[in-house]
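In keeping with the milestone schedule agreed at the kick-off meeting, the structural modelling team has produced records for the first pair of proteins. Each record is given below as a sequence line and a structure-token line. The laboratory manager (R.T.) confirmed that both were archived under the project's standard naming scheme.
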Amino acid sequence: MSVFVAEVARPALVFRGLLGQAEPILITGGRAVADYREVFVGIDVAKLKNAVAVAESGREGEVRFWGEVDASDANMRRIIQRIAAKFDHVHFCYEAGPTGYGLHRLIRSLGHECVVVAPSLIPRKPGDRVKTNRRDALALARLLRAGELTEVWVPDEGHEAMRDLVRARAAAVETLRVHRQQISA
């Protein structure tokens, strides 16, 4: 009698996926697909090309180099939209530098979170002296996922314009002083 009960109960358990067999919809490419996918993107910003790396959420999340992209707004917009289409929630970060905060404004205008980090506040290993765009982007993505980055204040366009004006005036005053010294000498 117990054999008959086991035979009857087994198809119900298999149907619900309780016997260690995953349902076909839950397997894609050999690993289980989660309902909510979050990703952390590190961007190493440069004048001509930006290096992009992606770290998937979780301890076992994969960290991979996405590629290098031209630094123009159109190309960055396209890569941001391509990454955002594959994941539910996207976090971006990049190092502050001479390129300004235009990328931060672009990412925020597309509706994503973006963190700008001071290069001096990024944790580094004592022996890690090799700096490449690829390595920096991978490290930024990893550290953003771990929550190890310290965000800096990003000025709005008005503050940034005022900073540029003050810096331009200071440079003009310095140039005038240097030329006066040259003439008097």
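The second protein of the pair:
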Amino acid sequence: ILYSFAAMIGHFLEPILAPIGFNWQISVALVPGMAAREIAVSGLSTVYAISGSGPNGGEAALGALLAAQWSLATAISLLVWYIFAPQCISTLAVIRRETGSAKWMWVTLGYMFALAWVACFIAYHLAVALGWG
């Protein structure tokens, strides 16, 4: 996966998202997460090469892997991201249809991404300052 198109996207986004505690793997998972938020989990499973076999599928393996590789500050930052980031592409499409203008869709997209980034920056650096980094 290191040389895939998805990995290239993740490495491209990493410098923008690194100040909020995100690595390239999280960056990759955010892209399909715009289709629907729950897809980000399967995106993480794919990036970290977790198989779906076993009694709990890949959930237990993914949880253990993320607990070992992510700090609490990173996990908090990802939760904050999903509080403020745009819901999904279909939400943006509805905004465009209801307002009759692509302008408001783009304003919403930019505003929500900026709000999510700033909120994650504050949450991540506060968590690091508290020793959770």
